[in-house]
Amino acid sequence: MTCSPATRRTMYFIGVTTGKSSIMKVFPAWADHLGLNAVISGMDFAPNSDPAAYREAVAFIRDDPLSLGALVTTHKMNLLRASRDLFDALDPYARTLGEVSSISKRGTRLIGHAKDPMSAGASYEAIVPAGHWRQGGALCLLGSGGSSLALTLYLHNKARAGEDVPSRIVVTARREPSLAEMRHVHDKIGFLIPIDYRLERDDA
Questions:
Q1: Can you tell me whether residue 121 is helix, strand or coil?
Q2: Strand pairing of 67-72 and 10-15?
Q3: Strand 102-106 to strand 109-113: parallel, antiparallel, or no bridges (unpaired)?
């Protein structure tokens, strides 16, 4: 990968086929509405690319004055594994999940963020009314992938703050490794809500 110095304030989209993403059309409208004076540029990597390629991209964003940060999709975990030492700081969710979904710069500091729990939380709050769980009730999550894990982390933080959360959570999944990863993250943070992990195979 060859990165040319940005000639305008630039936000990058690190993905697989970024040119086909709707964000390439939406971002210019956002930038215009918010007065950002910035453009978006795609960086395409094949899944599970060479760690050196991820490091090169992160180092370029860090060092190029007009490169402001990046949105990261498919490569969240691999990118952080390859370039963790290039970041000056990671937010709490990035440290917990071992991934970054966005990269920002604060002066000379490069910061990695994991925003999925916040996005999942915003969707949850838009759907579930305040006080919904005060009479009890369980939450069932179909699948144990990234979105489900993100939502459980959001609910864990609500429980830690003493806010209204389900009395328990049931997670169903068809792949044991996915459930195992969720258990690992929950064990690491001392998950506060009773949770039942259920493997549901196709032939069950």
A1: helix
A2: parallel
A3: antiparallel
Query: What predicted TM-score, i.e. pTM, was given to this entire model?
Result: 0.83
Tens of pLDDT, residue by residue over 53-86, are 999 999 999 999 999 999 999 999 999 999 999 9
CATH topology of domain 117-199: Rossmann fold (3.40.50)
Task: Sketch the domain layout of the chain as residue ranges.
Answer: 10-114, 117-199
What sections of 47-204 are H helices per DSSP? 51-63, 76-83, 92-97, 116-127, 146-160, 176-189
125-150: per-residue pLDDT in tens?
Answer: 999 999 999 988 999 999 998 899 99
Q: Which helix (H) or strand (E) holds 28?
A: helix 23-34
CATH number of the 10-114 domain: 3.40.50.10860
Spatial contact of 129 and 159, defined as CB atoms under 8 Å apart: no
Q: How far is CA 21 from CA 18, 41, 87, 193, 203, in A?
A: 5, 11, 27, 36, 36
Identical fold for domains 10-114 and 117-199, yes or no, is yes
